[in-house]
Amino acid sequence: MIFHIPHSSTYIPEDHRRVYKISADQLHQLMISMTDTFTDELFGAHTAPGDYKIVFPVSRLVLDPERFLNDQEEPMAEIGMGVIYTRTSDGELLRDVPQEEERQDLIRRYYVPHHQTLTRAVDDELQTTGNTLIIDCHSFPSRPLPYEKDQDPYRPDICVGVDTFHSPPELCKAVQGLIHLAGWTCEVNRPFSGSIVPMNYFQKDSCVYSIMIEVNRRLYMDEVTGEKSAFYSDCQRHLGSILTGLHRFFQTL
To answer: 229-243 pLDDT, tens per residue?
Structure first.
């Protein structure tokens, strides 16, 4: 399996901080709300021998690897949250629209290598086993942020994101069953939807499976301070049982 962890990093290169139009305190608070904090640990602790763990090295506030490069194809670009964010989660100015030279530099430094790594992992798994499963690893705030389309205050414990081509019904059913066995609630494609697949394989190769698992942050952290809560270990353990079960199930496909 391939564990794809795109939004866990809080690292912003020092020479990049000058582009932001908000204060250091505002940037810190934005980082807490927008980062899938600790997902590299929550999910990464459960990789098995032979699994891949691909973690994006910088904050999504620098560049978001899960956006389409072309803003014309990326719906979030309409609100200033395309591949390079220019707006905060509140819709305030985060930074000016980058000049083309800076845009291409960021893409070359971060976006391209990340997607090359993901594609190579899929290539390797297909050559080795004939199929592969990407787990798109995320978390989400317990209350909707202003930029989010889904403003329903009720949010499940786990959001399962699926793709009609790469997430077959039997996979979705298995994941939901494992989540319920862990004692958690879940919904499919709510409050977020979809799951990443490299463009070389997207809607082309049915041997590439993908499913997104998003953990509600109330299950493991203090959303004000950004620190782990007393429930962190329980959350990590339950998530481990889900991922172990998913690993076993995938071997039957």
So the answer is: 999 999 999 999 999
Report helix, strand or coil for 221.
strand
| CB proximity list for 134: less than 8 A, separation 6 or greater | 1, 2, 4, 118, 122, 195, 196, 197, 208, 209, 210, 211
How confident is the model at residue 143, as a pLDDT?
Answer: 98
Backbone angles phi, psi at 137, to 5 degrees: -100, 120
Per-residue pLDDT reduced to its tens digit, 3-54? 999 999 999 999 899 999 999 999 999 999 999 999 999 999 999 999 999 9
Helix axes 232-250, 169-181, angle to 10 degrees: 150
- Supply the DSSP string of 115-137, one letter for each residue: HHHHHHHHHHHHHHHS-EEEEEE
Segment 123-141, tens digit of pLDDT: 999 999 999 999 999 999 9
DSSP secondary structure letters along 6-35: -S------GGGGGGB-S-HHHHHHHHHHHS
What is the layout of strands, in order, in the sheet containing 208-216? 52-55, 2-5, 132-140, 208-216, 158-161, 186-188
For 219, which DSSP code?
G
CATH of 2-250, one of 2.120.10.30, 3.40.630.40, 3.40.50.720, 3.40.50.300: 3.40.630.40
Please report where in the chains the tokens 């139009």 appear, as a residue. Answer: 21
Strand blocks (E) in 197-238:
208-216
Tell me the pTM.
Answer: 0.97
Whole-number pLDDT of residue 50: 94
State the pairing for strand pair 208-216/158-161. Answer: antiparallel
